Amino acid sequence: MNKMAVTLSFLSICLAFVVVFLGYKAGLSPDAPPVSWTPEQQRELASKLKSAGVNQPAIRAYEQYASTASVDNKQLAGLAYTIGKMHMDAGNYEDALAWFYRVEIADPSTSLKADVGAKIISCLEHIGKYSAAEYALTKRTTSGQKPDHKGRTVVAEISGEKIYLEDLNEAFDSMPEWMRTQFEDPKKKAEFLKKYVADELLLRKAVKLEYDKDPQVRKQLKQIRRELLVNKVVEAELKDKIKVEPDDLQNYFEAHKKDYIEKEAVRVRLIKAGMQEIADTFLEKLKAGEDFAELAKKSLDKETAENGGKFNGWVRKGEDDLGIGNVDEVSRILFATNKGAITSSVEAGGYYYIFRVEEKRDEKTPEFTDVVERVKNDYYMQKLKISYQNLLDQILKSAEVKLFPEALTGEESS
Known about the structure:
β1 (154-158) and β2 (161-164) form a beta hairpin. The longest helix has 26 residues, at 3-28. The protein has helices at 3-28, 39-51, 55-68, 73-89, 93-106, 113-126, 130-141, 165-173, 177-180, 186-208, 215-238, 246-255, 276-287, 292-296, 302-305, 327-335, 372-397, 406-409; strands at residues 154-158, 161-164, 265-273, 315-316, 346-348, 351-361. The chain is an alpha+beta fold. Among the domains are: 154-213; 262-361, Roll (Chitinase A, domain 3), CATH 3.10.50. The protein is built from 18 helices and six strands.
């Protein structure tokens, strides 16, 4: 046999081997169904893989089924949604996006439209297409008839969408009073506008990422909704049943006068030191005639140091208005010291304090007119508590209710 014949024979054997090998691979590949495989069998395989939690092979099986099965547009939309959701759960956001778009194209009027739209936005956000996500969100939330905003003041814009002064004021008015007071100044209100817009952007990002569908968030929202609705019913049931008459307030004040007594109190300046030796050094300088307010600027209490040691507000006898602890000893020293005098050092909370008594106030029982608003609030809250308890008793009796407190207390029911 010559060299040419040997070469051709060798090539023929190699070619045969490649053909056999490729045929063998095609028959065994998990991605390629057998020749006699039906679309129904392919769907069953995909379903079994999905149920087993084998995500990637299940996706490939569903995609193979989608390419071979004879289904109408509605069925194709449902299938595309299933595949898109599986890609999304696997973190394949670009592939998921392609399948969600297929849903919209296959069946524009699909009942899955809202959910698909939300998932498209989420996919765009995850792959960094922020402008496209913002546009899709704006288009989805502003569909339908637009309200008439003619003549309203615009305070901000987000991607062309206007935010009006009325929106800002509504958010401002819904805050607790202690928060509102921080933004009442016009310059501070400009800061509130910045916060409002930032919160809106964060909210939109949360919606894009579908955090509103997170099970824990939905559980919390359900609880908040429950509380709001219950409070609304309680308010409607009780608001007309609580009457506040002037004579009632006067009688309540007389019966609870001890609750309105203003305790003996002092105003002080203070110096805070970290060690007894340092406090003693301060005392020596004060005895030598150095100014208390000047020395107080070296105090460890930075809040009062800036104001020469002056503590804002009254310090009541027996109360921890200073917030430093050791109330009994601090009170004993303060109220045994004359106005204008300086105390010895007193330990409280691991620090040492020196006080100068600036002003003293005796215990006082105020006139009714001086505390009428406090009395009104206290009286109303007492009436509200009684009315609320009556409402609870009434509502429990109005339905067939059984309570099992022993399940909580461990005690046997009587």
